[in-house]
Amino acid sequence: MLSYRHSFHAGNHADVLKHVVLVDLLDYLMKKDTPLDYIDTHAGAGCYSLVGHQAAKNQEYNSGIGKLQAIDWPELSDYLALVSDCQKGPSLTQYPGSPEIAHRLLRKHDRRWLFELHSTDFGLLNGQYGAFRHTRIQQTDGLKGLMAVLPPASKRAVVLIDPSYEMKDDYAAVTKTVVKAWEKFRTGVYAIWYPVVDRERINKMEAALKRAGIKSIQVFELNVLKETDGRGMTGSGMIVINPPWVLFDRMQALLPKLASALGEPDQASFRCEVLAQD
Ligand code: SAM
């Protein structure tokens, strides 16, 4: 039974971090003309209304994209331009999820794979993107779907792994799948999102990825509140395997600014770390 609906959380600080990194990864990999595969294991609904009752309930976007509207930092320009292009008028009413970001950035010869288990969100994805070429949308487990797609014919891929971590086993399942995926397709760029709720689980995931021998791993984390012991999400992070060489410097410049713009004073923090390097 899936109870998580991303529409309640669209545009929050965690989405900002995740999508800034995603835009950077796609921008970089598309500098080369050759085709690229985009694989989104937990795609969500695609695009979100911020004025619909779900997003409006807790207005989480006010902790994220809502705070960045008047910002003019070079590191955010591509992401903010993309968000702005999604709006139907002058005010912020829409937020692009990861499939919409990919839809706006990918080229005609790129391929995308979207996996989503929830029937409503799967239907929404199909309605928005199902008719496009080189697009496969499947209502199936995204981790199994990923393994079936790898290695992609293009031999170049960005894989976004963005579960809601509703089940405690999700951390282990993600780690196991990422290691298997990397063993099958070692040059892919893998971006794994995680919530900061329980540090022990994050430490275990990072240690297992390192132990597996993965050669190039970086982590980017944005904490908007002081970390507590398992009492709710205080931040989130992205583990990136095989990051483009430009990403670390860009995130090192951006994370302190994001922490101060989105975080609570005296509580916010960030991590910008190399976990493994070849
Ligand atoms: N990636 C989206 C974005 O950035 O806009 C948000 C995804 S949301 C955090 C996680 C999604 O995964 C939910 O829509 C949920 O229904 C879906 N989901 C949960 N378990 C899944 C599974 N095993 N396989 C595929 N999708 C799953």
Overview of the molecule:
With 278 residues, this protein is α/β, with parallel strands linked by helices. Helices cover 37% and strands 19% of the residues. The strands form 2 sheets. An 8-stranded mixed β-sheet has the order 5-4-1-6-7-9-8-10, with helices on both faces. The chain has a two-stranded antiparallel sheet with strand order 2-3. Helix 1 packs parallel to helix 4 (98-105) and helix 7 runs parallel beside helix 8. The mean pLDDT is 95. S-adenosylmethionine (SAM) binds next to loops.
- The helix-and-strand class reads alpha/beta
* Topology pattern, helix = H, strand = E: HEEHHEHEHEHEHEHEEHE
Overall helicity: 25-40%
Shape: globular
How do the helices and strands line up, and which of them pair or pack?
Layout: H1 13-29, E1 37-40, E2 47-49, H2 53-58, H3 77-85, E3 94-96, H4 98-105, E4 111-115, H5 119-129, E5 135-138, H6 142-149, E6 157-161, H7 170-184, E7 189-196, H8 199-211, E8 217-223, E9 235-241, H9 247-262, E10 269-276
Parallel strand pairs: 1-4, 1-6, 4-5, 6-7
Antiparallel strand pairs: 2-3, 7-9, 8-9, 8-10
Helix pairs in contact: 1-4, 6-7, 7-8
The chain binds S-adenosylmethionine (SAM).
S-adenosylmethionine binds at residues 2, 4, 6, 18, 40, 42-44, 97-98, 115-118, 121, 141-142, 162-164.
